[in-house]
UniProtKB/TrEMBL annotation, chain A:
Keyword DNA-binding set for record: yes
Keyword Transcription regulation attached: yes
Chain ranges of the RNA polymerase sigma factor 70 region 4 type domain: 105-155
Name of the protein described by the UniProt record: RNA polymerase sigma-70 factor, sigma-E family
GO biological process: DNA-templated transcription initiation
SUPFAM superfamilies attached to this UniProt entry: Sigma2 domain of RNA polymerase sigma factors, Sigma3 and sigma4 domains of RNA polymerase sigma factors
Ranges in a coiled coil: none
Domain RNA polymerase sigma-70 region residue range list: 11-77
A molecular-function term among this protein's GO annotations: sigma factor activity
Organism, as annotated: Actinopolyspora xinjiangensis
Family: Belongs to the sigma-70 factor family. ECF subfamily.
Entry keyword set: DNA-binding, Sigma factor, Transcription, Transcription regulation
One Pfam family it belongs to: Sigma70_r4_2
Automatic annotation (TrEMBL), chain B:
Keyword Membrane among record annotations: yes
Segments traversing the membrane: 51-73
Organism of derivation: Actinopolyspora xinjiangensis
Protein name as it appears in the record: Uncharacterized protein
Keywords recorded for this protein, A-Z: Membrane, Transmembrane, Transmembrane helix
Tree of life domain: Bacteria
Length: 163, 346
């Protein structure tokens, strides 16, 4: 195994699952999410310097997943085939997450404006700081704060409507 | 900058529930067993094709470099300093005449570019400059460093009703004429003398959409000017709707702002149409003003590359439309300052 392949395998082992889950939350579609993350991992090889710098590689992967998720949602909107896949999933026996029904939460997240959804996923799922979330989203930290605040308020009201 | 949020948790119960809910939602999501092998296989395939492309590229670049050295006289002038208007911002003219950019999310002034004392009738935001239509001056191009130049190709006495900038090009409407400026070249599109261009939108490919009205009255209509063409085609809408007020391009089609009720102008609706067929792509969102707006010039719609839409009025109220959500960005154009009655542009 050459050095770069070993580097990529390490990246995969450490971050693939989290990126995949992040993509699922962003696009509601497991197989599309897998394609997005696969593509990001393949493209990270386009620059050897990037792959040798772990922080750059990670930032690239996260931004790539975010950008491709945006493109996918936009294409869906164009073709008017937007469907909330997580919502359509049959509820399993343990769908309760500390009082919030998973299906209801998935539906509420899917109804958020795209930027609020991204900020919520990066801040509250990936646990990124405001500054790092801003870097990945290419917006200001103030904007992230505003997106999160509005997103949480909106989610709370959507969940109260349903619960 | 820390990647992870290491600050002491100050979350409220909603945030805690959300965090737990998100993790629970995807706890069953695991990579497919073949994910790593597929990544490595794709990577090997890509490396091969990249090698061939790389070698071809190197040969082409060497030839091009040789030709450039032979043909061009070396330019020893100082390299231009890269400038750009901040992303996630919109441009306004403050009450003291200063052109400024304001943060899209908070409405706070980010940067002041320079002061224009004469009356400004329209603003447009380009990738690297702000354009201001100034009475008696034509159109001024203002950089983030404050440098101001008059745009050639637009006369000092030109009456400018609307402007739109995209991809280094600027389109200026006045009367029945549209002037397209790109670098040092200027192109003019002239419509029938009985028509007036009320608004226009230029996309990155050079395609132009127009809101056009008869001088003798009659409802405004939409027209499309394909890139590079001088003639315009009328866009015939599928559904009956109120006459368009303002337009802007999005990645999915043409955004059209029109009154919700044709007889009143206190509420508007933003819809997306396919400019080729006139069919509606998106149902859009509605915005209610405090009172009826005056003419089409009192409201403005503009977009950014992320398909966010800014709806602004001459009174200073500014809304951001992001997906299906509408947020009021500023009551009076920007936070803590007053502006002149020129709708902001993104």
């Amino acid at each position: 195994m050459d050095e770069l392949t070993a580097e990529l395998t390490d990246l995969y082992n450490e971050h693939y699952s989290q990126l995949l889950r992040m993509a699922v939350l962003l696009v509601d579609d497991r197989s599309a999410a897998e394609d997005i993350v696969q593509d990001a991992f393949v493209r990270v090889f386009d620059s050897r310097a990037r792959l040798r710098d772990r922080d750059r590689a990670l930032a690239f992967l996260r931004r790539s997943v975010l950008n491709k998720s945006r493109s996918l949602l936009r294409r869906r909107q164009v073709s008017r085939k937007y469907q909330h896949r997580l919502v359509q999933r049959e509820p399993g026996p343990d769908e309760s997450a500390h009082g919030v029904d998973r299906t209801v939460l998935a539906e509420a997240i899917a109804r958020l404006p795209p930027r609020q959804r991204e900020a919520i996923v990066l801040r509250y799922y990936a646990d990124f700081s405001e500054a790092y979330t801003a870097k990945i989203m290419k917006v200001t930290p103030g904007a992230v704060k505003a997106y999160c605040s509005r997103g949480v308020t909106r989610l709370s009201s959507l969940l109260r409507e349903r619960v | 900058m820390t990647e992870l949020d290491t600050a002491a948790p100050r979350e409220n119960s909603d945030e805690r529930l959300l965090r737990e809910g998100l993790h629970t939602l995807v706890r069953d999501v695991e990579p497919s067993p073949t994910a790593l092998s597929r990544v490595l296989a794709k990577r090997r395939g890509r490396s091969g094709s990249r090698l061939v492309l790389g070698l071809t590229g190197v040969a082409a670049a060497a030839t091009a470099a040789l030709l450039l050295v032979l043909v061009l006289v070396p330019d020893r002038s100082p390299r231009p300093v890269p400038v750009g208007i901040a992303p996630d911002s919109y441009v306004v003219r403050l009450a003291d005449g200063t052109l400024a950019s304001a943060a899209l999310e908070t409405g706070e002034v980010l940067r002041e570019f320079g002061r224009v004392d004469a009356e400004v009738t329209a603003l447009a935001k380009g990738d690297e400059h702000v354009y201001a239509a100034v009475a008696g001056e034509g159109v001024l191009r203002v950089g983030p460093d404050g440098t101001t130049r008059r745009v050639r190709g637009v006369g000092r006495r030109a009456e400018v009703s609307a402007m739109s900038a995209a991809n280094g090009r600027l389109a200026v409407a006045g009367g029945n004429r549209v002037t397209l400026v790109s670098g040092n070249s200027t192109r003019r599109i002239t419509l029938d003398t009985g028509l007036v261009v009320r608004d226009l939108a230029l996309d990155r490919s050079g395609r132009l959409a127009l809101v056009v009205r008869d001088r003798d009255g009659g409802a405004p209509t939409l027209r499309l000017v394909p890139a590079g063409r001088a003639g315009s085609d009328r866009i015939r809408l599928f559904e009956p709707a109120c006459a368009p007020l303002r337009i802007a391009w999005s990645s999915t089609g043409l955004l059209v702002l029109r009154p919700r009720d044709c007889a009143a102008r206190d509420a508007v609706r933003l819809t997306t149409i396919d400019p080729r067929t006139g069919g509606r792509i998106g149902g859009g969102v509605g915005i209610r003003f405090e009172g009826p707006i005056g003419g089409a010039g009192d409201v403005r719609v503009s977009t950014d590359s992320a398909d966010r839409v800014l709806v602004s009025t001459a009174t200073g109220k500014t809304w951001l439309v992001d997906g299906g959500g509408v947020e009021l960005v500023a009551e009076h154009c920007v936070v803590g300052r007053n502006c002149t009655p020129v709708p902001a542009a993104m």
